[in-house]
Amino acid sequence: MQRTKISVLLRTEPTGTEVLVKGWVKAFRNNQFIALNDGSTANNIQIVVSENTDPELIKRIKFGAAIGVQGTLLESQGKGQRVEIAASNITIYGDVNLEEYPLQPKKQSLEFLREHAHLRFRTNTFAAVFRVRHALAFAIHQFFNERGFFYIHTPIITASDAEGAGEMFRVTTLDPKNPPLDEQGNVDYKQDFFGKTTNLTVSGQLEGELAATALGDIYTFGPTFRAENSNTTRHLAEFWMIEPEVAFADLNDNMNLAEDMLRYVITYALEHCADDLKILEERLLEEEKSKPQDQRSEMSLTEKLRFVTENNFERLTYTEAIDILKNSNPNKKGKFQYPIEGWGVDLQSEHERYLVEKHFKKPVILTNYPAAIKAFYMRLDEGAEPGKETVSAMDILFPGIGEIVGGSQREERYDVLLQKMQAMHIPEAELSWYLDTRRFGSCPHAGFGLGFERLILFVTGMTNIRDVIAFPRYPGSAEF
RNA sequence: GCUUCAUUAGCUCAGUUGGUUAGAGCGGCGGACUGUUAAUCCGUAGGUCCAAGGUUCAAGUCCUUGAUGGAGCGCCA
Questions:
Q1: Three-state SS across A175-236?
Q2: What is the per-residue pLDDT for A166?
Q3: In Å, how far from its chain's centre is CA A427?
Q4: Is this complex's ipTM strictly greater than 0.90?
């Protein structure tokens, strides 16, 4: 007999049809009722064990055991569920020794579960997180596909170390204890696998631009690696990034695209993950009970998500933000650890948090940052007064997360780009292929990078990025 | 990398100014229970107090160093 998934059975009319379910025992009550879950949904199906079941079999129905149940789907006689299965036959696929099984039928801390990441999928919270993660990934592809974007796979291994997006992981097949040396006694990477030094990618943007300047609208969605010694709740050494790149688009088009995309995928999650979001909302509520009143969020998780889908993001320039911050109460009262003194300095996370969480109380798009604090490829704004040059950059800041999107209109003018690369000491020889886009049929274009795990953080209400990726990689940790 | 807090039973935590035999809830185990919903009820076992060194008549408690974990900051997505 073919097994039916619990997600399907819970929507089926209970007319006494014969069904087969397979899953894991979540609870066994009163020697009679099994709460069974197969991962297809956050909800369990209730199995009613018949009175004449072998007592030896009943003893093996324990929390975590994998079982199969054949029986009839009936309207539930008890309250709390619509349907249940009256079992006629129960098969044990995998027993569980509860004296050794780390998981327990009770609340367990996220820290403990992180150390048992191979088993944490089995908890209600993590199963919900990973179903939402899937839904968001799917929604992103659907969003871009509907708009005629092409999904480009950019390389994971790159020979370029000039992208300037952070420290890189070296890729090599050389023996670290006995590497070949050149005449000067340095490691001879000409003898390495690729004949040169190679690294894991920190961004697919530059390759994405190559595709966009032919295919028009493209996006990438792939793993990204940063060897930064970052120890925070919002950084990973291995994470997933979405990077759209759009030909003939300016900064405004870029902001509209990013805002539309975020609204689209969050709406998708609200529509398709209601059961999972309910679990996550309750989890968050429980977690916040231990916090002092003034640190609890004013809105529930789904209210927060709806708020984002129903309201426009606040758009303002870096210069306007500096004015607001300079005149803000915390700045005047010396509450900022880094006081705002003038134009030109980068904003600290306390400043971003003030703008997003206190001043505007909504997502904020900051634009037109000083050129000196941004990457070489961002387009230089025209008409700036000398010493106050800005670039067409944009950062989208979300409450509780900070920067979720970073992007810009790209510098399409060959001379301007070359000049900036020289000023910022970017080796042009290594990026000649990139410069070629500006030499031949150059066009205005824009794009951004979205941190996928940061998006999941926001949608799930989880607070540590290590809990929204299955097996997190961060300094000192690459388990599983 | 910096700052800070923590580490006591399987899990989450309490443990007074240093002073007998280190506690609780949940979980486990044994039993009862056929309309339960984090089921309930009865019984029961379970400890290298993170590690090493030091102070002291006496250290879970104080000091030093280290390890691991959390949070914040920096770097960013």
A1: CCCCCCECCCCCECHHHCCCCCCEEECCCCHHHHHHHHHHHCEEEEEEEEECCCCCCCCCCC
A2: 74
A3: 32
A4: yes
pLDDT tens for each residue of A25-43:
999 999 999 999 999 999 9
Contacts of A440 (CB under 8 A, 6+ apart): none
Nucleotides on strand B with an atom closer than 7 A to protein CB? 1-2, 10-13, 26-29, 33-39, 68-77
**In contact, A239 and A221? CB cutoff 8 Å:** no
Domain annotation for chain A: domains and CATH numbers: 6-101 (2.40.50.140), 122-167+202-467 (3.30.930.10)
Among all strands, which nt has the closest C1' to A81 (CA)?
B37
Q: Give the burial string for A229-263 (b: 16+ CB within 10 Å, else e).
A: eeeeebbbbbbbbbbbbbbebebeebbebbbebbb
Whole-number mean pLDDT of chain A?
A: 94
HSE at residue A449, side-chain half, CA atoms within 13 A, is 19
- Of the listed ranges A25-29, A36-40, A333-337, A469-473, the least confidently predicted one is A333-337
Q: SS3 for A5?
A: coil
CA distance A49 to A46: 10
**In the predicted model, is pLDDT for residue A288 greater than 90?**
no
Q: What is the pLDDT of residue A294?
A: 72
Query: CA A230 from chain center: how many Å?
Result: 17
Is residue A298 very low, low, confident or very high in pLDDT (cuts 50, 70, 90)?
confident
Q: Which nucleotide is nearest to A243 (CA to C1')?
A: B77
Residue written as token pair 């796979």: A153
In Å, what is the separation between the CA of A141 and the C1' of B26?
A: 43
